[in-house]
Amino acid sequence: MRSTMAVKSKLVSLLFLIATLSSAFAASFSDSDSDSDLVNELVSLRSATESGVIHLDDHGISKFLTSVSTPRPYSLLVFFDATQLHSKSELRLPELRREFGIVSASFLANNNGSDGTKLFFCEIEFSRSQSSFQLFGVNALPHIRLVSPSISNLRDESGQMDQSDYSRLAESMAEFVEQRTKLKVGPIQRPPLLSKSQIGFIVALIAIATPFVIKRILKGETLLHDRRLWLSGAIFIYFFSVAGTMHNIIRKMPMFLQDRNDPNKLVFFYQGSGMQLGAEGFAVGFLYTVVGLLLAFVTNVLVRVKNLNAQRLIMLLALFISFWAVKKVVYLDNWKTGYGIHPYWPSSWR
Amino acid sequence: MAALESPQPATATAMRHAFGNVLSVLILVLIGVLAFSIRLFSVIKYESVIHEFDPYFNYRVTQFLSKNGIYEFWNWFDDRTWYPLGRVIGGTVYPGLTLTAGTIWWVLNSLNIPLSVETVCVFTAPVFSAFASWATYLLTKEVKGSGAGLAAAALLAMVPSYISRSVAGSYDNEAVAIFALIFTFYLYIKTLNTGSLFYATLNALAYFYMVCSWGGYTFIINLIPMHVLLCIVTGRYSPRLYIAYAPLVVLGTLLAALVPVVGFNAVLTSEHFASFLVFIIIHVVALVYYIKGILTPKMFKVAVTLVVSIGMVVCLIVVAILVALVASSPTGGWSGRSLSLLDPTYASKYIPIIASVSEHQPPTWPSYFMDINVLAFLVPAGIIACFSPLSDSSSFVVLYIVMSVYFSGVMVRLMLVLAPAACIMSGIALSQAFDVFTGSIKYQLGGSSNSADDAEDTNNAPKDDAAAGKTDKGEETVKERSSKKGKKKEREPVEKPSIKSKIKKKALVLPLEASIVALLLLIMLGAFYVIHCVWAAAEAYSAPSIVLTSQSRDGLHVFDDFRESYAWLSHNTDVDDKVASWWDYGYQTTAMANRTVIVDNNTWNNTHIATVGTAMSSPEKAAWEIFNSLDVKYVLVVFGGLIGYPSDDINKFLWMVRIGGGVFPHIKEADYLRDGQYRIDSEATPTMLNCLMYKLSYYRFVETDGKGYDRVRRTEIGKKNFKLTHFEEVFTSHHWMVRIYKLKPARNRIRGKAKKLKSKTSSGWSSKSAKKNPWI
């Protein structure tokens, strides 16, 4: 990850240095008028975008950050993006960028007054603004940086957003912003899943479809009348629940872990009853379900088979599998929870 | 009954039936004894004492009821809790449990059996577990016959999930509510099978009892409409369905509104809307069927378009009203707990106080094994048995298990609702399996072919007995009345032609030796279940958590610190003193120490709890200000570091921070974590080391072993020697589990500060400090 950000153009950075120096020189004479000009320009740039995230390039950085004397009248929250890394799923760049846009839009929507001009959301794209990346000393993504009004050295990493600050996406980003800038972001406003016209379309579709559905229900020939569908649905929900899938969804558990000591080995079973891994849950859920299914198979289907030997063979197989499944679950449970389940015999039997 | 069967061996069958009935009653009595006695481990191993937290509140309310009578209880305003707000107990409590135990106590006393209120409270739960297993028998018998009923009742009598909530001393709502739940379902099924208004009325009354007892009644009022809808959609509508449902909604809702804690919620909250919607639908459907009955098919086709369109308009209007109502309230009219069932990630995101409770966590697979044990294996077989053939009643239990198993996957406490369903299903599965296996053995050992023939005949004989023309019902009556032996064959559809049945009968057997092995394995499975249940009852679920024990090499250690400190409070503090602690200990403090608390386990006011959480997470001075503003005299903390008691306040502390931070944003969880890790050793953050909870827990702790080694966190504490400025230690229990601090009066603190000032600046301190000090 870090190696991808190699130093590329020394020339640009030299030019940039000159530009920075000259602009810094100019900025030292700046007054409040030019400050408000800058703010106005930022506001107009912001209004041109959809979510309020200003796209900055090297020129923009020099104009709004390096050439303005501290304290600047605004903070910038900069998202460092790289289109070429969007394909790397573990970096989650597109997702974070989307969430960043949501925070920005929420901030805009909740702050119409003076506070709205104190913080601007910006993004810098790597391929177009490599020197800015260098200027900020950014060599690893994802990287989100808050440039407070007083920061003059852009390499100062105090404004960097930690991993924990965007772990919960927009909500935690907003918390970070509120914590650092003392500005109120307000409630996060996510775009609804369906737009209004889509909802209207769906409602219309349902309204049109209902008479036909009711007609078929009255006739009794829908899928709903198929018992096998209900049966498999019920069994599936049972399997789904006893496998603890809900736990995996709520806790966002992975299917398996990598062994810490040996990275090539995968850990499928987690010891300790408070937690489970995805594959583990499905495996045990399958064991839970298969015994009942075999029992039902024997008592409902196998009894009608006429061949006695076939019956015998299948039944013994089913019994063996069931026995093995129960034994396995008991073993796994004892291993996982550490409980020592034991009977209570009368003391005279010992 | 016997007359219905072939006349020849009439007396023999009658005898067998009579014998079977007597045996059933005997077995049921034994099941009742089993259910009661398996729950007595807590009394035998510990003592006859009320358990945990909530039961103490219920006990206190029952005491009040038995002392002051029902009207006083109904209007009781409790000023001992939620200081300074107080709580209207009569209007905010589910009165079912209290009234039940109060009635039992009153009846016993009028019979001159002088039991104390506490004894009655301790044993209410085991008694009601016996009732619950009998109700399970009735319910399962309605669905699949008495064999399955007995099996299900026996399983329910010792299912660990239910034991966990109903051991002797666990005097909580669930103890009676599970009985009410099963009994309501039984009466619903009974009404559905008989179509009798008498049972429908009883059903509404049972539902009323359930509403009185437990907030879980919403499960009933959503499950039954769902079943009705399911029946309608799959074309199983019948007048019996209407009788089973319509009176329940009308009477049930009216009765539910009588319970103060529910009141108008019974018509206003979204949890109940499903029942009203289905109520309208069933009327539309009933109208359609009625018109279908009086019109010719051709006319009906014309009419159906008319009715359907009118019905749809009505439905649309109602839906629109409901949507408007739902949209007008912020949470959509759903309570937080219900919402987190629909959207499982809801609570963890938005309501830390719900997410903080351990029983609201989603369970992992070992929880199922622990709580329903081998039933988890048998349930799928039960589901399949319910589908062959599918009747109104069996579709209901299928729906019940599906809904409850899904909800239990979201919240571990709803495992309790799953347990009866799992028992019913497993009972059905076990009964069916035993029928098939023993039938095969019996058939192949010979000599019983005659009786097999008889049993076969009964299938077709009483078909016209059923009053309603529906075949489902015919099957049901057959099932109830025929002997256990014939049941195997009844699993096949009744409509089978009799010629075919001769051939089928021969085929319907399994190999002898395989059947014997299968039977043995099933018995082993059952034995394992019994062993597990007894173990769970004895070891896992019997601890009262008010008295702790630990077994070590040098014998049994008893930690009775809680009662020691509550007794200290009641003997050494003024009656009107206010005691602050985390909400877990609120009920116990009011019940055992009889002192006023700030927050308790009835977590109705999030802000108030957040205030206490904030105080605990603040530095000493800020905490002193908060507590002082609440008139608090004493602060109680629970500390397990010395003996290794893991559920102490330090382990709960992050929740205090979260809940406090939810209302008072200056408390931030990140300030208490070092790199995302919660720690109290030398690496801990300064905010953590200076917060009140840390200081009160670890004050003088280093004096115990010289190092300050915390046995729960398994580390040495970060800050060892410090003094308290605003609090003084007044009591620490024998094993340091409970520590009580007194807020220093403002004047004392000035003197302390003044001394410092005096030593620094030699002149004129009094006027200066008096000006600066905000406490005067």
Observed structural traits:
heterodimer; A: 350 residues; alpha/beta; Glutaredoxin; 2 domains; 4-stranded mixed β-sheet; two-stranded antiparallel sheet; 11 helices; elongated; disordered N terminus; B: 776 residues; mainly alpha; Rossmann fold; 5-stranded mixed β-sheet; two-stranded antiparallel ribbon
Describe what this molecule looks like in 3D.
The complex is a heterodimer of chains A (350) and B (776). With 350 residues, chain A is of the alpha/beta class. Residues 1-9 and 24-30 of chain A have low confidence and may be disordered. Chain A is 52% helix and 8% strand. By secondary structure, chain B is mainly α. Helices cover 64% and strands 6% of the residues of chain B. Chains A and B meet through helix 7, helix 8, helix 9, helix 10 and helix 11 of A and helix 16, helix 20, helix 21, helix 22 and helix 23 of B.
Strand tally of chain B is 13
CA radius of gyration of chain A: 31 Å
Q: If you consult CATH, what is the topology of the domain at 558-743 in chain B? A: Rossmann fold
Alpha-carbon distance between the two ends of chain B: 89 Å
Largest interface, by Cβ-Cβ below 8 angstroms: which chains and how many residues each? A-B, 72 and 72 residues
Indicate the structural class of chain B: mainly alpha
Give the overall form of chain A.
elongated
Could you state the order of secondary-structure elements of chain A as H and E? HHEHEHEHEHHHHEEHH
Mean pLDDT of chain B: 82
Helix content of chain A: 40-55%
Low-confidence stretches of chain B: 1-6, 448-505, 761-776
CATH level-3 fold name of the largest domain in chain A = Glutaredoxin
Number of helices of chain A: 11
Instruction: Please count the beta strands of chain A (DSSP E, at least 2 residues each).
Output: 6
Low-confidence stretches of chain A: 1-9, 24-30
